[in-house]
Amino acid sequence: MIVRMCDSKGAFEAFPEKQIKLDLKNITKIFEVIIETPVLIIIKDKFEVSIFRDGKLLIKNCKSLEEAEEQARRVYELITRRDRVRKSAGLWSETKETE
What we know:
The longest helix is centred in the last third of the chain and has 22 residues, at about 65-85. This protein has one domain: TATA-Binding Protein. The chain is α+β, with helices and mostly antiparallel strands. Residues about 90-99 have low confidence and may be disordered. The strands form two sheets. A six-stranded antiparallel beta sheet has the order 1-2-7-6-5-4, with helices on one face. Strands 3-8 form a two-stranded antiparallel sheet. The chain contains two helices and eight strands.
């Protein structure tokens, strides 16, 4: 996972190491959802997190890279834990990277 400050400096963004595609509808069963759209969901966990279909996270209201890394790790862990149980449901799928 890669975590860095967003260009706007108002949030942190995280990316999975491998290209993925998420089924956002299934992820809404894991977290408290603030907003749900076809492109992204916004959840309330320790911080407000936007989760995009390509696996990108936008983590708002945290003050340090360490807090952002901890939040991203938690989100990815919960998604992948659920995936191990329900992989056939399409919650988490790796896609081939194009060269």
